[in-house]
Specification:
D-Maltodextrin-Binding Protein, domain 2; 6-stranded mixed beta sheet
Amino acid sequence: MTFSRRKFLSASAAGAVAATASFSAPAVAKGIAEWRMVTSWPKNSPGPGMTAQRLADRITAMSDGRLKVTLYAAGELVPALEVFDAVAAGNAEMAHTASLFWQGKMKASFFYTSVPFGLTSEEHCAWVYHGGGQALWDELYAPFGIKPYMAGNTGMQMGGWFKTEIRSLDDLKGIRQRVVGVGGEIMRRMGVSPVVLAPGDIFGALQSGLVDAAEFLGPWTDTAFGFYKVAPYYYWPGFNKPNGTGEALVNRAALDGLPADLKAVVENAVQAENAYALAESDWENARALQALSQKHGVKLRAFPEDVLAEARRITPQVLDDRLADDELGRRILTSYREAVDLCRDWGKVGRQAFLRVR
């Protein structure tokens, strides 16, 4: 698929004007329902933008057109970081986004995107599907009338783009970095000034000097956004985001209003897209990383050991501090840590051991 960063960024800006328009009710006639899916992504952006469109298409096709889902990219109906509110209010039946954006509403929401030094993508899926993670997620979103699903995954993330080389922990001090999720607090405690920006605003912020560094996703999506043009140093490992789960939000009343077979269509469509997108990201990230170093002259760098050691040291305390007064959040943290402990030994003798010898 041909992809233009300029095209989708300009479309997002134009859409912000359209977002002021009033909502109209979805059409329901002759047993056909029409749902609106709002997203946090520029239209068809590699990774989550493409996942969102495929998910809308899957539901429409699997329902034989009885449940037609129309996608609206970031800004076309609502701004990128307001899609949760739109679904909660019933102004859209569905959204595709990432849970880490909602920490102002629910302190523990970030667990369902990624946790620093936490579960990998495969381990995260195991926790949600089989380790009790979904039930806790449902409980977290229930007060807002929203049913959440895993619906796409961008896989292992990179550590981010920097305009200057980071040779030690001291070099982080004073840097302004676009970083979201609990990772923003970890970076703040290491001397960084975290800045929250919607995905479509990152390139302009890097280019203008509003930020000195930015983390987003992996090589495939990051390449499409053009970050390599304004920040030549690309750091690994992505300790902040060892997983990249995207979420589908569904208005609970809209979901409950569907017949049983269409509910099953929605649930099977999100599961299918979750698996497909992770495989796609692993493949495309590998290709993009090769192109970044060989074609675009990007300087790949490993984070210095003192940066990794400090981030690892402070992460448990950041998590504890964040959820100290949040009973549900502490239950999610306990469940998550139990999952990490369970997966650790298998990971050592399984995937980690194999990759070392391969």
